[in-house]
Design a protein that fits this description.
Blueprint lengths: L3 H10 L4 E5 L3 E2 L39 H4 L2 H9 L2 E4 L6 E6 L2 H10 L4 E4 L4 E6 L5 E5 L2 E4 L5 E2 L13 H6 L28 H16 L5 H16 L7 H13 L4 H14 L3
Antiparallel strand pairs: 1-2, 1-3, 3-9, 4-6, 4-8, 5-6, 7-8
């Protein structure tokens, strides 16, 4: 039976940068300070408590084609515990269209040119020759994985790989944000008072607590950010009291922990969707 390390070495020999994945399809921390994902797994973090590795050592940034690094003692325990092998598509000059459900596959068969396909647990990976910027949630159930991203290796797939089409590149083009009206005070019908969320002490305390929760996260940063956004929106999001200033304070706290602007926007949007807002 081929081990994960053997698979990785074979891919590396073919010019595909690879790395080990732990349970949950998450990357290992590749230095002692980052074991168990203590720093949140974000490449090249510079915030307090982040790793002091001499080079980025997490996620896609750890992918390599160097067999000496793959066999090195620093990675030995990671390979023994690995649940899968991942690769950096952009580093191999590839783009993966990750189709996460049957509806997404149906859409791809109608909208995208055929190319090499690889079955996944819930859908398919469509692999095109050519690199581009990665983007999550470009359509329902559709992610793009290329530069600054990793994809799980699930085998070579079937079909002939074709060049990256413009229709896939266009999926990553951001649409102009919708113009939102400025929040207005909402009167409470009982008692005739102002919405309690407009009370500066109440609202500011809630935002400050949310910032603190994100700042103090030592692991699972992305999950902490999402759950914090969910809590803030649940408490303050239905009466118009939240402003862009409040949202940007939370985004700034998340970005200080290594979250990208797109991750923040996605987490905020997903929290709103979960609450039916």
């Amino acid at each position: 039976m081929t081990t994960h390390l053997e698979t990785a070495l074979n891919l590396a020999a073919a010019g595909v940068p690879v790395l080990p994945l732990r349970a949950g399809k998450l990357p290992f921390g590749n230095c002692a300070a980052c074991q168990h994902n203590a720093c949140g797994g974000r490449p090249n973090m510079k915030t307090a408590g982040a790793c002091q590795c001499p080079r980025p050592c997490h996620g896609w940034a750890a992918a390599t084609t160097d067999p000496d690094i793959l066999r090195s003692p620093a990675w030995a325990e990671a390979w023994r515990q690995a649940h899968a092998v991942a690769y950096h598509p952009g580093g191999a000059g590839l783009t993966v269209v990750d189709l996460d459900n049957a509806d997404a596959i149906t859409w791809a068969r109608q909208a995208l040119p055929p190319t090499r396909t690889v079955p996944t647990t819930r859908g398919e990976h469509w692999i095109y020759l050519g690199a581009m910027g990665s983007a999550n949630g470009v359509r329902e159930g559709v992610d793009l994985k290329s530069t600054m991203a990793y994809a799980r290796w699930l085998g070579p797939g079937t079909g002939t790989m074709t060049g990256l089409p413009d229709v896939v590149r266009a999926l990553a083009v951001k649409k102009p944000p919708a113009v939102r009206p400025s929040p207005v005070a909402v009167a409470v019908p009982v008692g005739g008072g102002e919405c309690r969320h407009r009370t500066p002490a109440y609202l500011n305390r809630g935002i400050a607590m949310a910032e603190q929760r994100i700042t103090e996260a030592s692991s699972a940063v992305h999950t902490t950010v999402y759950r914090t956004f969910l809590a803030v929106l649940s408490a303050h999001g239905r009466c118009g009291c939240l402003t862009d200033t409040h949202m940007q304070r939370l985004f700034a706290a998340a970005q200080a922990k290594g979250e990208g602007p797109r991750h923040c926007a996605d987490a905020w949007a997903n929290a709103r969707t979960a609450l039916g807002m």
